[in-house]
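Friendly challenge for the regulars: who can give me the structure tokens for this chain first? No prize, just bragging rights.
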Amino acid sequence: METIKIQYRFKFSDNEKKDYEINLDPVSITYINNNPDFKPEWSRLGFHQCRNCPLSTESIDYCPVAVNLSSFVEFFKDEISYEEALILVRTEERFSSKKISLQEGLYSIYGLIMSTSDCPNMNFLKPMARFHMPFASMEETVFRAVSTYLLEQYFSHKKGGSVDLLLGGLLSRYKEVEVVNIGISDRLKAVTSGDADRNALSLLDSLAQVLFFELEKSLESLEYLFKIPSKYG
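First reply, four minutes later:
Bragging rights claimed.
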């Protein structure tokens, strides 16, 4: 199987262009770091280590998420979040483009890299990363997150495992993701002069908050989709 390639191009108003390609292993859906030797001090595991991190500094020197983000952060560290850019994304399945603020474009890439970096608290997001959807709205992302989790429960049921139809496990997982977002944001505050990177992470945190709210409300905002009247009954 060939490497999964996801290509981002940022076109700014002054005609500057920035290209960034993300490569994923087709079997493990793990981020392939093309610059693995670039490990700045802020990527050390003990530097603003996430409160819920299960990894130990005694056996692991570097945070896998921070190492994979480091080249990307270096690429955009001085950019301003509200600057608009035309962002073009090419995946194996489709081509997408949208003119949005830089922070919204970075948010999409941050989520993709973080979810595929083999962080124990983020690994459950790999199936969504495999079918990456740039520029997804909050409603679309909640729909995809819940649908993916229920598909996981289906496969668990097939193997004789327990099934969580009330989504308690999904809520717990996103609470862990929220802690990771805070930890990575704390790292970035120490190394970036622009605010685009940090604001992109704030958007990721907003997604977690929206998901909490939706689950607590029993996904009422999506229920209408399954009550759409039919002309023919």
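The beta strands are 4-12, 17-24, 84-90, 95-101. The two ends are 45 Å apart (CA to CA). Your move, everyone else.
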